[in-house]
Structure formats: C-alpha cells, structure tokens
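agent: user wants the full assembly modeled, not chains individually. Plan: 1) parse entity lines 2) check alphabet per entity 3) run joint structure prediction 4) return tokens. Steps 1-2 passed, two entities, 731 residues total. Proceeding.
--- entities ---
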Amino acid sequence: MHASDQTLNGSEIFIESLRRENVEYIFGYPGGSLLKVYETLYDVHDIQHILVRHEQGATHMAEGYARATGKPGVVLVTSGPGATNTVTGIANAYMDSSPMVVFTGQVPSSLIGNDAFQEADIVGITRPITKHNFLVKDVKELAATISKAFYLATTGRPGPVLVDMPKDILNASCIFEWPETVEIRGFKPTIKCHINQVEKAAQKIAASKRPLLYIGGGVISAEASEELQKLAIQQNIPVTMTLQGLGSFPGNHPLSMGMLGMHGTYWANQAVNKCDLLIAVGARFDDRVTGKVETFAPQAFKIHNDIDPTNVDKNVKVDLPVVGDAKNFLAGLLEMMPIETESRESWLAEIKVWRELCPLTYSNGDDALRTEFVIEEVSKQTNGNAVVVTDVGQHQMWTSQFYTFLNPRSIITSGGLGTMGYGLPAAIGAAFGIKDRPVVLFCGDGGFMMNIQELVTAVHHNIPIKIFLINNSFLGMVRQWQELFHKEKYSFTDLGESNPDFVKVAEAFGCRALKAENPDSAKAAIEEALAWNDGPILVDFRVVKKDMVFPMVPAGGSISDMLLARLNPKTMV
Amino acid sequence: MKHLISVLVENKFGSLNRVAAMFSARGFNLESISIGETEDKEISRMTIVTRGDDQIISQVLKQLNRLVDTIKVIDLTRQPHVERELLLMTLKLTKTQQHEIFELINVFKGKVVDIKQKSITIEVIGSPDKINTTIDIFRPYGIKELARSGAVAIHRGE
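--- prediction returned ---
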C-alpha cells in the first residue's frame, strides 16, 4: 500500500481514486445521498462530469464510451430511484461484456434496511447482472474497493461492476491510501491459452479442407483484429462474424462472409452448415447465431476459444476448448502455423456460388425510401470509417447487412439484451470518446422515444452525432414477426397515429433536423448531416412501413429453414 | 446424478446469496446448501448437493468458480470423502410406543436431547441416506416437527 499523508473525506477519496484510474468522464446525475460528492465535484476540472437527463442514459453513455474506446465507462447516480434506473443499462453491459463501473449513492449506513427515503437494495438487485458488486462499509476500504472495481471490470472477460457508497462513508475521513496492486483471491482469469490446446488447434486448421472462422466480440475487446486478419489471410480461411464481432475483419475483403445467424448472410450460414472445421473465437454460440443447436455446424470439428470457461460447452458441445485471451490464442496460432498453406480453392469457390446465388438485395428503383438504401448510402459516404451506433430492431439487422465495417470498435449495438432506447445515449457516449471519426446513429422511431431526453445532453455539449432516424411509424421487427408468425395481427405496433413530428421535437431540443422522404432527398440529407459538425443533427427518414429483414432463420429453426426474401412475395410491398 | 460439491468462499455478507441466486438464475437444481466458517475465519465452506447430467454439473462447477467470492470448488462426488447430516426430530410420546421408540433410537445411534410428558426430541447424525431412512422408520410413530441441517462434507485425510 502506498500511503500519502493526506487525510481526505470519502468524497475526495472517490474523486482521487478516479484520477488514479485515469477517468476522463463521469456520466452522472446528482441526488440526496451524493450531495457531498457533488460538492467536491464542483471544483474538479480534470475529470469532466456529464449531466444526463435520466440515469439509464448515463449507463448507456458509459457503455458507448467504453465500447468505442476500450476504456471503462463510469456512472455516478444517487440512491433508490437513481440506482434502480441504472438496472437496464447494467444488464445490457453485462450481456455484452462491456467494462463499466457504476457508483451509487446509498442512504446512511445506520438507516440501511429501514426502508429509508430513497433506499433500495441495489447490491441485491444487481447481483445477477454485475460481474461483481460492493457495498462500502468503512471509509478506509473505499479506495481499495474502487481499485478492485476497475480491475474486475477490465480484467478477463470485461463487465459491469457496481460500488454502493452510503452517505456517511462519503462524509467520513481517513488517510488516503491507494493500493499499488490488486489482489483478489477468487479472481484469477486464464489469459494465456494452454499451449497443447493451441497446438492441437493449429494441427486441425492445417488439416482442414473447409475451415471457417466464427468471430465474436471477444476479438474486439481483446484488441486482436490484427492477428485475426493475418491468420485468416495467410491461411485462406473465410471469416464470419457475430453482430458484436463485425469490424474485426474488414467487410470488403473477399474472405469476409458478413454476419451469421438469424439475419446473417445466406452464404455465411451455408458455410456453417458445410464447414468441416469451425473455429469460434470470442463468441458464445448465442441462440440468435445457432438457431437449433442440434443442427448447428453438423459436419464440423468445433474449436472454441473463449476467455470465460463458462461459455465453453454451455450451448453447443465443442471438440476442442481453448480457454484464454483471443489475442493470445490467435497470436499462438500464427506462430505455429506454416506460412505456406493450401489455397482452399474449391471451398472458397463453393462459398462464391452461394454468395452469387443469394446476395443481399433489396427492391429499389421506385421512388420509395428504404432503410437498406439509407444505410448503404451512409456506408458509402463515410467510406466505412464511421463509428456506427444502432438501436434495436430491423434497422439494427440491416446495419449489419448493409454497412461495410472496415475497422474494429466501429459497431456499438445492444446485442445480448436487445435494449430499445440504447442507441441515442450510446452514440453520445461514443462521441465523447472518439473525436476523429464521425459517430452515426441508426435508430428506429420506437427506440428513439425511449431515451429521447438525452438529446438535451448532446445539444448542451455540442456533440456532433448524426442521428439517422429510421422512421417507419411501426415497431418494425415486432411487426415482421406478427406478419410472418402471428396471423398478421398488428397488435399495438402501429405508431403512425401517435408519433410526434420528430423534426419539430428535435428543434425544440435545440437540435438541427432535416426530413427525407425519397432516395434523392435522403442522399442529400446524409451529405448535409455528415458535413455538419456544430452539434447533433437529426434526419427523419420516412421509410416504407412494411419492409422485412431477410434472410431470416425463424427462432429455434435450422439454417435449412432459412427464409429468403426473394421466395416471399410479401416483401414486395 | 447426485453431486456433492464443496465450495470455499470469502467469509463476507452476500456470499451465500450470490451462490444461491446463481443456482436459481441459471435454473440449476439445489437440493441442499450449508455454510459455516473454516479453520481460517476469512473463509467459509459451503456444501452443496445438486443433481444434473455431466454437462449441467460441469456448468455448475464453472459458474461457481466464476463468482468473484469463490476461492475453490471441489466436486467430492467421485473422491474419497465423508458426508454427514444432522437431524433433529420431535416425536409424539405415548406409553404404549415408548419402548419401541427407545429401541429404535439405539438402532440409529441417536440421542435423546429433550423429553417431555407427551413428546421426545432426538438427534441423529449420518449420511443423508441414513437420515432419510430414519425419518421413514419413525414416521408411523407420529413426527411433530423435524429439521435437517443439509449435508456437510469433507475430503478424507491422507
């Protein structure tokens, strides 16, 4: 322990600890139990406090920042309702393994358990949705607890950690001691892969005729894109990515297969079906990827590299588990694999046939505006170089299909939890972290309303995000399922009559806004939005109501059950 | 199949809750759980009885390990171990049955811990199987109340 002579109060210890963790931004909202902290914050200038307008917004902002930068996002909220409002954001970060530290105020220790004003057992509430959480019971433990929280959030598989700080702890004083190292007896993640397992994997790859890399978000959080690209290109292995893995391998490379799974490409899913070797790296065989597990990659020997051993054999039984960091695994493979390898020409030719048979298409040529067109146009105009944030639903899946991601940390999206309302605050958070690339948000009209209050935060801080509102006046993905599987009963998904005029709404918030109703005006509006850097700008794209996302593997179905747009006349609306 | 798992955890408030909550959140079966301090007062030992096929048990062990408060997880099922449970049970006492009850207490190596005019409280220690049998045998005599500790277990020494 490093002791300094300083006696500080709990609030000062809190701030000083954040400094030691090199925190740039706190996304927060004040309240009764945090008054002392906010008193201290008033004179702090090296850490910027971003005032949100709802605590859920703070959590998504922190996550957007974390995913864009790789650094942990920091949230500060008061006790009771302030704390409970963070629950969705914490659950989201937990499902998508995003590093985040959430600090909650708590009623004074003596009142805990008394149903005091603004009391909630947030440690109890968030236990199943945090990597770990703490209630600080003594001011002397505060600094060490904060240091542990950051260590846990960022080490091994990243995730959210919550620290609950009672009011009396923040007022009490002690000598500030910052621990030089963190030692947690029960937390020793395996970073380095077992060499024998990597060797076996290398042999399998060398012997395979039809290998396929199945890449998840773990490759991005491990900063292993470079190793992945080298390995795939050197060994001629096609690469398919999960939603969170997009960008780890450049989408314009001939070996890129795009996304797999429910709304994945036809050729990626066919390749999964026919490969003789599946190399899963930093992916967790999620049900949206596998469909029916019994028929997933039926001919393949399955290698699974993951930093979290619980992911191995959880959904799909694998043949060769390799627990450890993705970068370590891929670098190990690169070292062991011979440089000259098979060209795998017949396998790649087979994939090419599938690709040509069912490419990603959408109807065009009429004057109607379609989401696919908007996304493809944004992809072209940004040269695949934007940080793309999405909300949840159809536009999210179309983004995976029609935006060509070239770099890691370029898609920020709620994959695991599927949180509507995630997009706007996440985009703002990402823009705080990334200043040298445009940050664009694709958001449906349903999800936009769920955290619309954060538009104020963007306006107030002059955040130049491009809000591309994909407005079909419907909860489009639910509508799609209603049409396909629920007798076309569009139960409570038509927002047409109740939606506000989003241009007026944005303007009332002080945000510049445009409207586009056909492909030509859309193109021009995108140009204008990308050129505008004086604060946020919103474009209300009035897209067709009844478009559906294809291809589609119905939930729980096999890849052979895949619905292709061109086989379904209903998509020609 | 039944599994007996011994878990060493940090002796902190909430540790038991984290383990129990993990079982319910993941849909694992939890037959019994018992917890107490060990020779090191910073560490508690939990003994967990659960059921599942190999795939489920492997997930149970990994998920237990994943909890930050967990220090060590041992599946004792296929290793030499000693397993014990404590039963406390109050029975109706009638003149006619008195002798039989006392004989049975001897058979099960039980102890009388309390006796009143119309009731008798006994303790029996043994494997959960023995405890099950004990309860079955005494049931016809009229069980007023019973409490089981859940299994505790430990490796056999070398």
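agent: reporting back. DSSP finds 23 helices and 20 strands in chain A. The longest strand of chain A covers residues 2-9.
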